[in-house]
Amino acid sequence: MRAGPSVRTGRRDVGSTPGESSTVAKMIRSVARAKRGSAPHLLLYSVNTFLAYRISEDFYGGLHYVWCTPCFDSRADTRKYAIPPSANPCEIYSGLYEDSVRGDRHSSKISENKTGILAGADARMRQGEITARQLSDIAGRVMYSDPTDFRPLLFVIPYAVVRHIVKPVPLSERAHPLSEEYVVPRLPRRLFDILEFRPR
């Protein structure tokens, strides 16, 4: 899983869109159906940076590209999940948290995220989804960003509500051949929750 295009201790963002209560109710019912065995997973987890999140909200209509797994920390059950550090949400979150909080301007994780944000923006412009001016604005945000702008956000996604848009990652692109990884190219903000916390 890649940290791309989500820290203040103890903060929890649950959104505030119109009709939120009905949307949340639908999500709860969907999760309940998943518990009864109608879906292969209960939740999916994805780590993204704050800057990537803001760009998706401001330029892409609140549609987020997420790379996710069904396990927050694969180290808790190595017999079931073969997810290495580069795809393990818990380890990705911890690494980004340390680099962003400590202001590491040489962080490889932050550099990779910058590259991913710019590549995604360029692809969207070529597809006609954003203008050249908007691409320039995104590049400017990345150029003048501070390490603290790359603090991690944990996206928690009920599988049942995204099962129609989630796609398995091709084997050749996974972090490990036995790793269970998924991608949601256009995840609406209303379909996931965001958590921020201080890693142990």
Structure summary:
The protein has about 200 residues and is an alpha+beta fold. Helix content is about 40%, strand content about 15%.
Mean pLDDT, to the nearest integer, reads 86
Topology pattern, helix = H, strand = E: EHEHEHHHEHEEE
Number of domains: 1
Structural class: alpha+beta
Share in β-strands: 15-25%
Q: What is the rounded Rg?
A: 17 Å
Shape: globular
Could you describe the largest sheet, including whether it forms a barrel? 4 strands, antiparallel
Q: For the terminal residues, how far apart are their CA atoms? A: 21 Å
The portion of residues assigned to helices is: 25-40%
Number of helices: 6
Query: Total strand count, please?
Result: 7
Low-confidence stretches: 6-18
